[in-house]
Design a protein that fits this description.
about 140 residues; about 0% strand; globular
């Protein structure tokens, strides 16, 4: 089911209402990327949402847990002191994002040409999952 713009804003607001119980802080870099991710999602740019949510998650984890060190995202996820379920979901999102940004054979596009609707439906579901995973990440260390 394709969500319209109002339904997409409602989805984001419901996630914040569900997951943000106290206060949370993040770097301005992260806040900027989260905002851009929200605009991509509301605008129906599902692939951009997946990619940008992953970037925001990486930025958040770097600011919170990298200690200024240059660490690959895959290692940063494993090193961060976060719940295992969240870690697993971030890895799933990262791997899905990788299928789009590290395309081994971009000229092999027959499947996407034949059935673009299936890709759009899949991407919308992943965009919603990306928004949820992003919110779980940026709200994982709340304070009262």
């Amino acid at each position: 089911m394709k969500l319209n713009e109002d339904a997409r804003w409602a989805f984001i607001n419901a996630l914040d209402d569900e997951l943000l119980k106290c206060g949370a802080t993040m770097s301005e870099w992260c806040a900027f990327i989260v905002r851009d991710c929200d605009y991509a999602f509301v605008g129906g740019a599902n692939l951009a949402t997946v990619i940008t949510a992953t970037a925001a998650i990486e930025t958040y984890l770097r600011a919170e847990y990298a200690g200024g060190n240059r660490i690959r995202l895959v290692d940063l996820i494993d090193l961060a002191p976060i719940q295992q379920e969240l870690r697993d979901d971030i890895h799933k999102l990262r791997k899905y994002r990788n299928t789009w940004v590290h395309v081994a054979a971009p000229e092999d596009d027959e499947e996407v040409l034949q059935n673009p609707e299936a890709y759009e439906e899949q991407l919308e579901e992943w965009a919603k999952l990306a928004q949820r995973t992003l919110r779980r990440t940026i709200h994982e260390n709340q304070w009262v």
